[in-house]
Specification:
Largest sheet: 2 strands, antiparallel
Distance between the termini: 78 Å
Strand content: under 5%
Number of helices: 13
Radius of gyration: 29 Å
Shape: globular
Strand order of the largest sheet: 1-2
Structural class: mainly alpha
C-alpha cells in the first residue's frame, strides 16, 4: 500500500521530469524566432547596401530616354560606355587619377611607415608634439583647409599640377596612417630590433629588413587608405585643377552635371568604371585589412 508521502513525492517529481525532458538550449543558441528575425534583418540590410550600386549599374546600361525610369531591362545597350570613352576626355582623367593615386599610395606608405616606426621605437625632442600634431590635423574639416592649402599651393606654383594634389592628399592620409602604423609597430617585439643591431644592421636596415616584412597587414591598410583618399576625393581635385587635360576622375564627373540637368548615362557609366580599380585594390588588400586595423588599434 502506497503511503501519502510517497504519492506526494511522485506528484512533485512529475513536473521536474517533464522539465528535464525538454530540450536544453545551449549558451549562444538562438530560438527559431530569433534566428528568423536575424536573417530577415541581414537580408534587409544587404538589400539597402546593394541597391544603390545595382541601380547605378543598371542605369549605365539604359538608353538616355529611359535614364530616369524604372525600365531597367528595356533596350539594354553599352552605348553609354562607348560614348564616354570616344566623346569625352575620360581616358585622360583616368590616367591623371592613376598617376596621382599611385604616387599618393607609394609616398603615403613610405612616410607613414617610417614616421610610425620612429615614433614607436625612438625617443627624440618633440616626439609628443609630433604625435599631437598628427592627431590634431585630423580634426579639421576639408572646407576649412581648402583656402589655406590653395594659397600655399599657389605660392609654390603647384596649382593645376599633379604634384600639388599628391602633397595635399598626403596631408590627409599620412597623419591617420602614421598613428595606425605606430600602434602596429608597438605590437612587434623590440627584441627583433635588438637582434638586428647585434647583427650589425643600421636602424634603417633593421626597419627595412626585419620590421617591414612583419608589418605587411599594416602596410596593406595604409596603402588601401592612401589609395582611396586620392582616388575618390572631390573637393581638392575640383578646387586645384582646371582644364580637361588636367582633371582627375572626380573633377571630370562634374562635367556631366550643369544647371540644366545631368547626363545620367555617361555619368553612371563613368561611376562604374571608376569603381573597378578601387574594387581590385580592395580585393588585393582585403585579407590583410582586418588584421592590420585590429593590430594598429591595440596601443596608442
Amino acid at each position: 500500500m502506497t503511503t501519502a508521502p510517497a504519492r506526494a513525492a511522485r506528484r512533485s517529481a512529475a513536473p521536474a521530469a517533464r522539465h528535464s525532458a525538454r530540450k536544453v538550449r545551449l549558451r549562444g543558441e538562438r530560438s527559431p524566432l530569433a534566428s528568423a528575425g536575424l536573417h530577415l534583418t541581414l537580408i534587409v540590410a544587404s538589400v539597402i547596401a546593394v541597391f544603390p550600386v545595382l541601380w547605378v549599374l543598371l542605369t549605365s546600361l539604359k538608353p538616355a530616354a529611359y535614364a530616369t525610369t524604372t525600365d531597367f531591362f528595356k533596350d539594354t545597350t553599352f552605348e553609354n560606355y562607348t560614348n564616354l570613352i570616344k566623346d569625352t576626355e575620360f581616358l585622360t582623367w583616368f590616367g591623371n587619377s592613376v598617376v596621382v593615386a599611385g604616387l599618393t599610395t607609394v609616398l603615403g606608405v613610405f612616410v607613414s611607415a617610417t614616421t610610425g616606426y620612429a615614433v614607436s621605437r625612438f625617443r627624440f625632442p618633440g616626439k609628443r608634439g609630433l604625435m599631437w600634431t598628427l592627431l590634431i590635423t585630423q580634426m579639421f574639416p576639408v572646407a576649412v583647409l581648402i583656402v589655406p592649402i590653395y594659397n600655399i599651393m599657389s605660392g609654390l606654383g603647384l596649382l593645376n599640377q599633379p604634384a600639388g594634389l599628391v602633397i595635399t592628399y598626403l596631408t590627409i592620409a599620412v597623419p591617420f596612417c602614421a598613428w595606425m602604423m605606430k600602434g602596429f609597430f608597438d605590437t612587434i617585439p623590440r627584441e627583433i630590433d635588438e637582434s638586428g643591431q647585434v647583427d650589425g644592421l643600421t636602424p634603417f636596415g633593421t626597419f627595412w629588413r626585419l620590421i617591414l616584412p612583419l608589418a605587411k597587414p599594416g602596410l596593406a591598410v595604409t596603402a588601401f587608405y592612401s589609395f582611396i583618399t586620392a582616388w575618390g576625393e572631390v573637393a581638392y581635385a575640383s578646387a586645384f585643377m582646371v582644364g580637361d587635360e588636367n582633371l582627375t576622375l572626380a573633377g571630370g564627373l562634374q562635367k556631366f552635371v550643369n544647371q540644366y540637368g545631368a547626363q545620367w548615362g555617361p555619368m553612371t557609366a563613368a561611376s562604374v568604371l571608376i569603381a573597378i580599380p578601387a574594387a581590385l585594390v580592395f580585393l588585393f588588400a582585403q585579407r590583410h585589412l582586418v588584421t592590420g586595423m585590429s593590430a594598429g588599434a591595440v596601443k596608442g
